[in-house]
């Protein structure tokens, strides 16, 4: 059984090359600009993207999303 990847997805294409992708905060799948000769290269691309996504901008966007969800849940709790 294969282990689950913590971030992103790597798949082998019919050409034998590998395609890397991940689902962003916008719920859309984002693909690497190129395909890779080896799965390790695709993994490295995913690790780089993940590290870049954890920057201050991403954290601020995530904090805004969490604040909106929290406010909505509080409003729903008050309606009960």
What does this structure look like?
This protein is an alpha+beta fold and 80 residues long. It has one domain (9-79). The protein is built from 2 helices and 3 strands; from the N terminus they run E-E-E-H-H. It has a 3-stranded antiparallel beta sheet, with helices on one face. The chain is elongated and about 55 Å long. The model has no long low-confidence stretch (mean pLDDT 86).
Task: Provide the fold topology.
Elements: E1 9-12, E2 18-23, E3 29-31, H1 39-53, H2 56-79
Antiparallel strand pairs: 1-2, 2-3
Task: Give a summary of the structure in a few sentences.
The chain is α+β, with helices and mostly antiparallel strands and 80 residues long. It has helices at residues 39-53, 56-79; strands spanning 9-12, 18-23, 29-31.
- Gyration radius, in Å: 17 Å
Secondary structure tally, helices: 2
Question: What is the succession of H and E elements?
Answer: EEEHH
Structural class: alpha+beta
- Let me know the largest β-sheet: 3 strands, antiparallel
In which order are the strands of the major sheet placed? 1-2-3
Quaternary organisation of the protein chains: single chain
Helix residue percentage = 40-55%
**How many structural domains does the protein architecture include?**
1
Total beta-strand segments: 3
Cα distance spanning the termini: 45 Å
In percent terms, what proportion of residues is strand? 15-25%
Q: Per the principal axes of the C-alpha atoms, what is the gross shape? A: elongated
Low-confidence stretches: none
Mean pLDDT: 86
């Amino acid at each position: 059984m294969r282990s689950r990847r913590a971030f992103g997805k790597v798949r082998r294409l019919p050409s034998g090359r590998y395609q890397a992708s991940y689902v962003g905060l916008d719920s859309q799948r984002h693909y690497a600009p190129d395909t890779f000769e080896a799965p390790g290269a695709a993994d490295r691309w995913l690790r780089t993207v993940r590290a870049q996504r954890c920057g201050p901008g991403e954290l601020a966007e995530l904090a805004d999303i969490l604040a909106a969800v929290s406010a909505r849940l509080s409003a729903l709790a008050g309606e009960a």
